[in-house]
Structures are given as structure tokens and as C-alpha cells.
């Protein structure tokens, strides 16, 4: 039996220890066998070789396998060593302490959830549109800058933020990021953080929902398959709750089979007359349906729909990405894009306006560093964590998986012909929406090695079963074409490209919708925390009346913006995505600033650099991008410059201007750019206030030393669970003791 200290034992002497002795854990971590040493040397060498091939040995082409190996090897090293360093020196988890899921268990919002299910739920919640769309759009700047930012950025910034926010929120009873900021930074910084997180959250959820609407509109296959995941998730939740508690593997297999049936069935339904009539939906009714779904998902008990549905969708998400990675290793496609393109320095790219710095780091948000994750990590997930040591696996490990999604999206976009890429991602105003116009525009960009022909565009459209692929902006169609192009070389040939394309479109819609339901629930928690400062009863998330009121307010807010985006004559994604990127990164800076203040108050000043490094970078990038968007005189970059240009065109009696083909569209540009500009000023001002107050709080803590903690009082745990995906030897031995008990202590959830 593993040795245990007094702190690991329950007060009930009849129960086994609730945690493995820290000395045993330390010994396991330090045990290096020759085989273990050889494995890590091999990982380091393979990773080093891959980076050399990508960054140094740059010929006319680069093989896509080096992206996979560089990413995976870096993730392994970052997780094994850097996250362990953070756990040992900053986090210092204690599994003898009960988590909020145990001492606040209510079976609704607080429910102890199996770490594997929770990993799936958390990953599904954080992995929205960002890791799919951002890297695709940023591919115009070349493959190397985006690759470095996605892989290195996640290890040093994104995963660090997710891990620390999750742990600190868990220690504070699952408090929201805004409320933690109020507790740690005082009234000024806290109020600014609360306003910023609430307003940014509304924008983020609305854009996530808008991407879903754009992907599912007029697609009966996608609507049917995504809709079917809801009853499947309800069945899984009831199965784990009432019929077979704890049988995670069993319900996983059942859910996976049902999910495959929904996907295959969607293709069959889409070919029937009744299926087309029933499941073909326009954007506005689809948006209303998503708004209703968001409300219902946020108020139902988390074990019934949210956790099992997100866990279910994780099968498809991780399965598809791993399948794509394996296909890349086997097919070994060549990447013809340059390491750094001409658009990185000129800032005149037709896909993303602006130079590499700072706009690459804003365009690629999720996958490297995302403020939205901080809201999930301080919203639903910390209320479900079963043991403190699991936060490294769920928080840091979950973010590494999202980064891998982003790398695969980047490779998929880079794998298609560059001419086709720009024809798909240039605006309809630039291409005229026609094959001939797209060919003339792309060939007129003057890129070396690019010679686009009408036959290439028509053949690609025919292969994927679409009438046209010209100006299919937003990133999702490009990713679908890239995935289909790689997968058809492995399975099925060109005859199956249409299947793989529509499979990818549905995969993306499912991917993003899971972030909408989790985001809505988190928004409800945030608003309840905020209102609770004035009406204390709202802080009780189990109070159904308060939960319903807060949910209705937040859903109405993002729903209104969603409908505005859906009915925008220029397409809402073009209006809102730039604002999404900057707001998301500003939110990350806010989250890192709060973490820095908490670490300082803990007295761990030697390790402040772990947070100060990514905070400084994020602050410089996002504030620079915000200032350029606000003050740049170039209409393609600056909101107010574009607003002035379009207002002048209207005053001159123009009936079309720039990307706007009608007077109505021109007026929409004037209205939308003004809204974007005002929101940008609000967001950057609030972020600067939070960062400055966090720095002041850190300085005060350095002068005074460690101060009184805002953590909840420690409660003795009465349950045991392993920390990682695979239990260690000591954990297996202790688990065997718990398995021998005649009646296990009942968990609050899964």
C-alpha cells in the first residue's frame, strides 16, 4: 500500500487515503530508467530535427510531416517538464483538500466529474472557431511565423494561462475571472475587469454562434447531424447518472457509435426530399434556434447535457485531427507556400490587412493564447474538477490539444494550391464573385510560382460538390478543402472529396457549437457574480430564479449581436472577426494580469516571470493592434479611417464604394465601423486599467510579502481519483483499495 501522511487520510478511519503521499509522487517523478531516458532523448532529437527542417533548411518546398513532429515533440516536452515546473513551484496542488465539486456539490453546477470526461468537456468548450479559422486566415503571411506562434506560444503562454486560471478559480469556489479580479485588484481594477469580461464575452459568443450559422445554413446534412448530438448527449448523461454510474469507457463506446450513425445518417437524410425540406434552414431561423439552445443548455444541470455533449463532440474533434495528422504522415504532402510571404511586411494581403506584427498574433488567437479560455477555466470547469492535481492534465493538457488543432488547420490551408487559397479567401468585391474575376485578381497579385487558371477553380469546386469556391471567406471552407484534399489521397481518391469536404464542414460546425453552449453558461456565472456584489443572493448559482434571469440577459445580449451579424448586408463575420481577435487577446492579458497579482500575493516572486513574460508580450501585441485599428489613417486597417472614407463617398453621392456594392451596404459599413471603433476604445482602455492595477498590486505585495489569501477555507476531501489520463503505479495501488470498498462514496456527478 502506498505510504500516506496524516494529511492524506480521511477523518473516517475506515476509508483509504484520499491522496498518494507527496514523497511517493516525488519519487515516481524522479525515477529515470534507461528506457525512459532513451525515449525523451529521441523525442528531443526528433523535435529538434523538425524545427531545423522548418526554420533553417528551407528549400522551394517543405514536407508537412515536419509540422506534425515539431508540434507533438514540443508538446510532450512542454507538458512533461514546463507544466511540472509550474505545478511544483507555483500551483502546489493538495489532493487532500476537497474541491468545490465535492464540498459544494449540488448536482447541477457543482458536480465531481471523471477527469477523462472533464478533459473532453473542457477541450470541447475552449476549442471553438479560433483554432480552425485564425490559422487559415494567417496562412497568407507564410508558414513559419504562424507555426512558431502556435507551438511556442501555447507552451509559454496559452497553456500557462488556462492552467493557472483554472487552479486559482477552483481554490476560490469556482469564482469567475471578473470576480477574482475584483477580489485581488480592488474596486477600480476589479470593476474594469468585470465590465471587460462581460462585454467581451458577449462579442465572443455571438461570433462563435455566427460561424455556426454560416456553416450550417442551407446544409441539411450539417443541421441533422449536429441536432442529433443533443439527444445522444442527454442519453449519455442519464446513462452515467442513473443506469451505469462511473462506466465512462462503456458510455464512450456507445456515444461514439451513435455519433458515427448521426454523421452517416445526415448524409442519407440530406439526399431525401423530406430531409431537405425539414433540415434546410435559412440563417435567421437557424440563429433563433441556436439562441434558444444556448438558453436551455445554460440552465439545465451540467451533467445532463453540457458535459456529456462536449465529451461526445470531443471524440469527433480529437478523432478527426488525429486522423488528419496520420494522413499527413502517410501522404507526406509538400507545402509550396514560402516561410515568410511578401504580405507579412507590406501589410497589403487580401485576406488579413496589416503587417505580421502585431496582426499575426491577433489573427491566430485560439491555439496559442486565448482569453476566452480563461472564462471557461473560471466558469464551468473548476466547478467540476474532482481532485486538485487533475488541473494540470485538464488545463495545460487541454490547451496543448487545441494548439495541435490549430497546427493541423494551418497545414491543411497551406497544403492547397496558393492560387486557390487566395481565390477562396479574397473578398467578393475583389474577385467579383466569378471564376474569371478570381483568376485575374490572384494572378495580378504578382506572387512567384502562382499561375491560377479557371480550370483549376472549376475542377476543385466539382471535386468538393460545390457550385463555386470563389470568395468562400471565413476560413472554414478553406480548411474543409485542405482536409478533403489530404484525406482523399489516403482514402477514396478524388471520388470521395465531396464526402470529406462536407464531413469537414459539419465537423467545424459541431466543433464551434460546443463553445457556444459552454460560453453561455460561463456568461451566466459571470453575470451572477457581478450582480451578486449588489444582490448577494445572485452569487448562489443554485438559485434557479437568479440563474434563469442572468441566462436570459446574457443570451439576449449575444443573440441581438448574432441577429445583427446574420442580417448584415456585408456578412457579419467580416464585420466582427477583427474585433473578436483583438478583444480575445486583451482578455488574455487581463487573465494573466490577475494571475500575476495572485502569485505575488502568494509570495512566489521568484517565479513571477512565468506569467510576466506572456503578459508583457500579450499586452504589447494587443495594445499595438488596438491603437492601429483606432488611429491608423489607412482605411483597410483603421476603423475610423474606413468610416470617414465611406461617409465621404456617401456625401459625394456614390452608390457603391470599396467592398460595398450598394448604398445600403455603404451605410452598414459606416454604422459597423463606428461600433467597432467605439468598442475597441472601450476594450483597450479597460485592459490597460486592469494591467496597471495588477502591476500596482504586485508591487504592493512585493513590499509587504505574502498577504491574506482570498481562497476558500480548506475542507478535508473524502474521495480519491488519479491525476492524469493514465494512473501511476502508486495511484493504481490506492485505487484498488477504494475499489474494494463495499459502498463507494457517491460522487456529485459522473
UniProtKB/TrEMBL annotation:
Taxonomically, which superkingdom? Bacteria
TM region positions: 37-57, 63-82, 123-142, 148-168, 188-213, 219-239, 251-270, 286-306, 318-336, 356-381, 393-416, 499-516, 545-564, 576-600, 607-628, 678-699
Q: Which InterPro entries match?
A: CstA, CstA_N
> What are the recorded Gene Ontology BP terms?
cellular response to starvation
Q: Which residues form the CstA N-terminal domain?
A: 63-625
Where would you say this protein principally sits, based on its record? Answer: membrane
Q: Which UniProt keywords apply?
A: Cell membrane, Membrane, Transmembrane, Transmembrane helix, Transport
Tell me a GO cellular component. plasma membrane
Which segments of the protein form a coiled coil according to its record? Answer: none
Q: Which Pfam families match?
A: CstA
Localization terms from the record: Cell membrane
Membrane topology, as annotated, equals:
Multi-pass membrane protein
Q: Can you tell me which family this protein belongs to?
A: Belongs to the peptide transporter carbon starvation (CstA) (TC 2.A.114) family.
Q: What is this protein called?
A: Carbon starvation protein (CstA)
Q: Which organism is it from?
A: Conyzicola nivalis
